[in-house]
Amino acid sequence: MEIKELGEFKLIERLTKDIKPSNPSTITGVGDDAAVLRHSDKEILVSSHLFMEGIQFDLTYIDMKHLAYKCAMVAMTNIFAMNGRPCQIVVSIGVGKRIKVIDLDQFYEGLRTACSKWNVDIVGGDTTSSYTGLAINITCIGECGKEDIVYRKGAQPTDIICVSGDLGAAYMGLQILEREKAVYYQQVEEFNKKLKQAHANNDKKRIELLNNERAIIDNFQPDFVGKEYLIDRQLKPEAPGEVLEQLRNANISPTSMIDVSDGLASDLKHICKESNVGCRIYEDKIPIDYQTATTCEEFNMNLTTAALNGGEDYELLFTIPIGDHAKVASLKNIHQIGYITESRLGEYLIARDGNEFQLTAQGWVE
Amino acid sequence: MEIKELGEFKLIERLTKDIKPSNPSTITGVGDDAAVLRHSDKEILVSSHLFMEGIQFDLTYIDMKHLAYKCAMVAMTNIFAMNGRPCQIVVSIGVGKRIKVIDLDQFYEGLRTACSKWNVDIVGGDTTSSYTGLAINITCIGECGKEDIVYRKGAQPTDIICVSGDLGAAYMGLQILEREKAVYYQQVEEFNKKLKQAHANNDKKRIELLNNERAIIDNFQPDFVGKEYLIDRQLKPEAPGEVLEQLRNANISPTSMIDVSDGLASDLKHICKESNVGCRIYEDKIPIDYQTATTCEEFNMNLTTAALNGGEDYELLFTIPIGDHAKVASLKNIHQIGYITESRLGEYLIARDGNEFQLTAQGWVE
C-alpha cells in the first residue's frame, strides 16, 4: 500500500497502535504534542543521531527492519556510554515515494525489537515525506544516578584503557557487503550486454535462454560464508549494556567512557582531549576477531588500521584506576589495551616491533 | 571554506564553542556522548521535528539563519502547546556538498538567536553529511509542573474553543514566495532565450546589451510590498510562549491544547478525537489578518480554506471552561471561535450564512 492511500494521521495511528510504554518514567508516550516523562531522582541523559541514506546506510543491503534495529541500538549505545540506562526513544523519519506502508511497518517492527531488548519505550516522533532519500533521526533519553555518570573527561594518568568486545569487524563487514554489491551489479551489467547483443543479432533462441538465466540474477545470493560474524556486526550491532552490568557486578567504576563509533583512534583521542591526558595503546592488545583478521588479509588491508579507524564497533572504550587491574582481568570480553599518560606525552600506538605511531582521528569529512 | 577542509571534529568545535548553557536544568551540554539534564521536581516534555529540504523548506527563499530560527521555534512551540517551558534543544543536521562552513555558522547563529529568546540551551546534536538534500532534526526538551500539563485530551462539552493570533498568514506568505520564485525563473528563462537568439544571429551589440541586463536578473528583488506580515509569518514564526503567560496571569487553565501546525481544522480534529468530543466553530470568528484577506482575494483563493487548512501558524488552539468566557474576552490576541460539543454531534464549521460544513483534516500525504 502507498503511504498516500493511508494519509499521515492514519499512518501514524497504524505505526504506533501497538506501542505500550512500560517504563515507570514514561508518563505519556506517543499521541500528543510532546511526550511526558518523569525521572525524578535521576539525571536525564539525552543523545540524538541522524542517519542519512547513502551515508550511514545503503538500502541495497540492509532492510527496513534491520535498519531500524541498528539505528535504535546506536542511539542507545550513547546512553550506555555515559553509564546510563536508556529509557525512551523519539523517532523522526523522512520517507520518499519508494517507501511503502509495509516498509514502515517493518521499520517499526525493528524499532520495537530493539527497544524491547533494553526495555526502552518509543514515546514520540515525527513522520514526514522526503524528496530525496530516507532520513532517520533517533533521540534516546536515559537516566543515571548523579554520582554514577561517567563522562569523557575523567581519565587520569596511570589509568588503564579498556575496550569491550572486538574491533574492526563491522568495518570489514561493510567491505564484504560492498564487494558483493559490486559483484551483483557486474553480473547485471554483463547479462544486459549479452541480452542486447542477442537482440541485435535477432537470435531468438539465445534471447530465450538468457531470459531463463535472468532468474539466476534476480535471485543473486551474496557470498557471506565464513563472514557471518562480520555481516552481523555491520548490520545488527548490539548496544553494550551487558558490559556495564559486568562492571557494576565487579564493583569497577570507570573514570571515563565513550562508545567506539568513529573508531578506536578517534574515540580514544576524544577521551584524551576532554581529560587533558595522553595515552599509549599496544597494537598486540587490540581485540580482533578471527574473521576480521582473515578478511583483512583477503582484502589486502592493514588489520590494525581496520581496528583503529574502521568505526561502527559500538563497543565501550573506558578507563579504570590501575588498582582495578586484577578485577578487570577476570572479566570476560573486556580487554586492557594500554594506559593513560600525562598530556605532554601525546597519544601513541605501540606497534608489535616496539615502534610508536601517533594516533590520528578520522571523522566523516576527513 | 569547505566543510572537509575543517574536518568533522573541528567543525563541531567551531559551531559549539560559543554555546554556554544557562538553564539550571542543564548539567552538561554539548561535548559528551549525551547531554546531562536535571529536571528534578518537574515532568519532562520531549518533542522532535524533522525538516527535509524541498518539503518543509526551500533554500531558494529562506537563508540558513532564518531556517534555523524557524526550526527551533517550531520545536519549542510543541513544548508550549503542552503548557510547558522549553529548556533544551538537541540539533541534528545532515549537509550536502553545497553547504559551506559559513552556512553552518549562520545556521548556528539562527539557532542561538531563537534559543536566547526563550532561554533555551543547545545541549547536543549530530552533524553528518548527506548525499541528497539538507535534513534537520530538532528535539526540544521542556519542563512543566505535573498539575499544569495540558494535553489534547481534556476538552469537555460546553468548553469554549480559543485560538491565539491569526490564521492563514504563513500559508499566504508561502504563496507569495512561490509566486516570486516563479517570476524570477521566468525572467531567467526569457533572458536565456534572448541571449541564445542573439548568439545565433551573431548580433554582438545585442549580446553586449544583454550582458549588461544580466545584473538586473542577478539582483532580482521579489515584490513583497504590502505582504511583509505574511512573509514574516512564513519565514520567521514565533513560538507562542506569551500566550501562556497571558493565560497564567488571567488565571485561566486550558482544558486541552495543541499548536496549530497542520491547520486549524486538522488540529481541532486532533483535540476532538483525543478528548472524544465534537465541536462547532464559527467562520466569522476565525481571526484573519488584513494582509491574509487581501492576498487571498488577489490569488482568487478561499479565505476560510486558507485559515482552516493552511497550516504553519504556530499559534495555540485550546479549550477553556465556559465560566472563563469573560476572563478570556479581556485578553488581547486570543479569540473565541466556537465551542465543544458531545462527540455524536460531529465536528462542524458554521459558515457566515448559517450552513454547517464538516471539518476535514489535511496531513502531508492527503
UniProtKB/TrEMBL annotation, chains A, B:
The GO terms describing molecular function are: ATP binding; magnesium ion binding; thiamine-phosphate kinase activity
UniProt keyword annotation of Transferase present: yes
Gene3D superfamilies in the record, alphabetically? Answer: PurM-like C-terminal domain, PurM-like, N-terminal domain
- What keywords is this UniProt entry annotated with? ATP-binding, Coiled coil, Kinase, Magnesium, Metal-binding, Nucleotide-binding, Thiamine biosynthesis, Transferase
- Kindly list the positions annotated as binding Mg(2+) 5: 262
Listed pathway(s)? Cofactor biosynthesis; thiamine diphosphate biosynthesis; thiamine diphosphate from thiamine phosphate: step 1/1
Residues at which substrate binds: 312
Positions with a binding annotation for ATP: 108, 125-126, 152, 261
Q: Does the keyword Transferase apply?
A: yes
Q: Where is the PurM-like N-terminal domain?
A: 31-143
- CDD domains from the xrefs? ThiL (cd02194)
Q: Which residues bind Mg(2+) 1?
A: 48, 126
Give one Pfam family, short name only: AIRS
* PANTHER family (alphabetical): THIAMINE-MONOPHOSPHATE KINASE
Q: What is this protein called?
A: Thiamine-monophosphate kinase
Please name the source species: Prevotella nigrescens CC14M
